[in-house]
Specification:
Blueprint: H1 2-7, H2 41-54, E1 61-68, H3 83-88, H4 90-99, H5 114-121, E2 123-125, E3 143-152, E4 155-163, H6 169-184, H7 186-191
Amino acid sequence: LGMWRFSGALDCDWSVLESFGGDWMIAPTFFKTYPSNIYENNVEIAARSIIDEHGVRPEDIEAIVLRPGRLSASQQGDGRGTSMAQWRSIRNNVAHAIVGTRPFTAWQNGDPPPHIARLIERMTFEPYVAAAHEAQTTYWEGYSPAGVTIRTAGGTYEARLTQLKRVTEDELVTKFVVNVAPVLGEATATTL
């Protein structure tokens, strides 16, 4: 109901929704790991996994190849401009995921700072090609393919994901506290 009101036309006759009744079910939900389009979160998760698993330092990165499963022209920007341009930019969001920018509100808070812009400049896009064994379901079933390659002087690292990662309760609470504490204070954020 809320989503319909959010995305519907202003002149919609909302009384039609009253016939749906008052009992509702909340279906399984994918909370986003990162503050970007949910279907590009796997690009960010894949990039971050390379950093975590191989100890790659952001300043050592020479090139990054991004292979999102879905890509539109508006997502290929460099993160300069409005907060919407920053939110839509896969390159901006991957750079922030790589360096671990916190709080998440800083991802869309002005033009990218120099260390983020440096990573953005090193990124290119290639088409995502599904593996032969890959079960290609729908986005609504959690299928959100992504591949990332990061090259440094010390080696080339790849990561590939096909399913959206479900955020655990602990991860969700931690993310909430980190992002709410600057506004309400850590004690209040933790209590909430």
